[in-house]
Design brief:
With 263 residues, the chain is of the alpha/beta class. It has one domain: NAD(P)-binding Rossmann-like Domain (Rossmann fold, 3-Layer(aba) Sandwich), CATH 3.40.50.720. It has nine helices and seven strands. A seven-stranded parallel sheet has the order 3-2-1-4-5-6-7, sandwiched between helices. Strand 1, helix 2 and strand 2 form a beta-alpha-beta unit. It binds nicotinamide-adenine-dinucleotide. Nicotinamide-adenine-dinucleotide (NAD) binds next to helix 2.
Length: 263
């Protein structure tokens, strides 16, 4: 195999980017989808919710994406992911070259109250869901000799969480980071790269309600840079990682936490 060139990496923008979690109106997946749409990249959006998906697709087309396929799936269910990825692969104008795995759930249950079913559900969506998606898109990426896989971890994977989410969530996200590292090594040299992003305090609705009033002030006060992060800031990092200049980083976790945890 010869040395890879920058032109090889530039092809990534022509391939379809599969983004999960884009149904959430103010969520990270939506922000990522719209950021990539503005670059004119073809998209495939996958989520549980049909309404949010249709709205996301409409916005992505308006923002400049030439083609937006959508599919409903529960990412914890292997068969559901398999059917959805096959459907968007058929509908998309170009093969899938990028996966941005943003779908996920929080779990604030205290340790002694956790049931194994509750623990398993968190792992099944956050960790196994990422595995299902990556396993489905990887063969195509290997065939193309090019691919980017980016998954959302959380600062909780490193510091144990505690604000919105506790041990089950922290374990599920630590699993995502391990998966991203292991996969990076297995596919090194094939043109496929991976990355995890560990955010904290991004201003979304993950806990089912917007952060407002005193609660919001507490979060801001706890964040060293003095404000919450935005989905646009996170989407910008994703755009770099899944763009033509993102090919020389693989297996790394990128912290985006306003200084909450440094190092
Ligand atoms: N917002 C933050 O500050 C923050 C911090 C750390 C990590 N994260 C991570 O970033 C990701 C996105 O978070 P967000 O704030 O945008 O959350 P969000 O709740 O706004 O969006 C999550 C999306 O995931 C989808 N989803 C949930 N379970 C699913 C399933 N089983 N199958 C398919 N789709 C499913 C939901 O429908 C929703 O559209 C999550 O993985 C989250 O853990 C967020």
């Amino acid at each position: 195999m010869g040395e890879r060139s920058a032109a090889d990496e530039a092809r990534i923008c022509e391939l379809t980017a599969l983004v999960t979690g884009a149904a959430s109106e103010r969520g990270i997946g939506r922000g990522v989808a719209l950021r990539l749409a503005r670059e004119g990249r073809p998209l495939a959006l996958l989520d549980l919710g049909a309404d949010g998906l249709a709205e996301a697709a409409e916005q992505a087309r308006a923002a400049g994406s030439p083609s937006v396929a959508t599919a409903q799936a529960d990412i914890s269910d292997e068969a559901s992911v398999g059917a959805a990825v096959a459907a968007v692969d058929d509908a998309a104008v170009a093969p899938i070259g990028t996966l941005v795995s943003c779908a996920g759930i929080a779990n604030p249950t205290p340790f002694l109250e956790l049931t194994s079913a509750d623990f398993l559900r968190t792992l099944s969506i956050n960790t196994l869901g990422t595995f299902h998606l990556a396993q489905r898109v990887l063969p195509r990426m290997l065939q193309q000799g090019l691919g980017r896989i980016v998954a959302m971890s959380s600062t909780a994977a490193q510091d144990g969480g505690g604000n919105f989410s506790t041990s089950a969530y922290a374990a599920s996200k630590a699993g995502v980071e391990g998966l991203i590292r292991g996969l990076a090594k297995e596919v090194a040299g094939t043109g496929v790269t991976t990355a995890a992003i560990a955010p904290a305090n991004i201003d979304t609705d993950i806990m089912g309600g917007r952060l407002e009033g005193e609660r919001r002030e507490q979060f801001v006060a706890r964040t060293p840079v003095g404000r919450l992060g935005t989905v646009e800031e996170l989407a910008e990092l994703v755009a770099f990682l899944v763009g033509p200049h993102g090919g020389f980083t693989t297996g790394a976790t990128y912290n985006l936490n306003g200084g909450l945890r440094v190092g």
